[in-house]
Known about the structure:
Elements: E1 2-5, H1 15-18, E2 23-26, H2 31-35, E3 40-43, H3 51-54, E4 63-66, H4 77-81, E5 85-87, H5 94-109, H6 112-120, E6 136-140, H7 144-155, E7 159-164, E8 168-171, E9 175-179, E10 192-195, H8 209-214, E11 220-223, H9 232-241, E12 246-249, E13 269-271, H10 282-299
Parallel strand pairs: 1-2, 1-3, 3-4, 4-5, 6-7, 6-10, 7-9, 10-11, 11-12, 12-13
Antiparallel strand pairs: 8-9
Amino acid sequence: MLTVLCGADSPPDMAAVESAAVVRYTDARGLADALRGADALFVYDFLSTAVPGAWPAADRLQWLHIAGAGVDPVLFPELQESDVVLTNSRGVFDDAIAEYVLGVVLAFAKDFARSLDLQRATTWRHRESERIAGRQVLVVGTGPIGRAIARLLRAAGMQVSGSGRRARTGDPDFGVVRDSGELPQYLGEFDYVVAVAPLTAQTKGMFGAEAFAAMKPSARFVNVGRGELVVTAELVAALRAGEIAGAALDVFETEPLPPDSPLWTMPGVLVSPHMSGDFTGWRRTLVEVFTANFRRWCAGEPLHNVVDKRLGYVPSEPQGAAG
């Protein structure tokens, strides 16, 4: 039996799964009841935090799949210590997020926000814009999304380096990867800093006062990873103090972003509602990824995108697991 945790919307195109299993659809309130007797759980509402509270009812669960790249909403101690296999939807959002990052880099460099303001004011004001070719970019997080970002920015002529758990040279996408544990020591070398690291105990709050103080006053910060990578109050303080020139933020510590947040109206800040990876048809693609893994699970074959529950993400060399 399969339980599917839904939010406001149910997953589309589940016919193939429904023909092969008994499927229970539930929202957060009914999750505990729906987990009893379930062999697998599909967390379609990938931002839901309901799974830890309902976990005691999971009496025969073998596999949990989340319809997102980040697994922090379901990575709690009881799951980590269990034999339940955890998989994610790695690969679905890579190119869309990379396009978003290139888009906001161009928006900063070409001053599109100011152009739109002047257009609305019917004001003709000539300005010069920046080139992005040759600018130095640091991508913090060297997983598939970070690699897609690096490839696209390199194609646009930017110089891209990575920051990850292990320093190395000769990386095919980043060239040089720095040790993320030493982040403040080299942040000042970069014109753009892109956060796309998974949320773990080590990365939570990694962008705070020390990090922003280490950046160039002309640098722009882009967060397409997790809101909790950033200490929001310290980002606001850094922007107000001119320690960095701007920020493009797609994720936040609190979502939706509260109406009274200063980030809404601060100059040099671009706010989007956690949508950088959400292209037309993405929901169907998420179901296709789950359905393909579901067929493997039913056949006892190794699953794709198995998360290392100690690390909090799929390792570079994915580990298989039979259902």
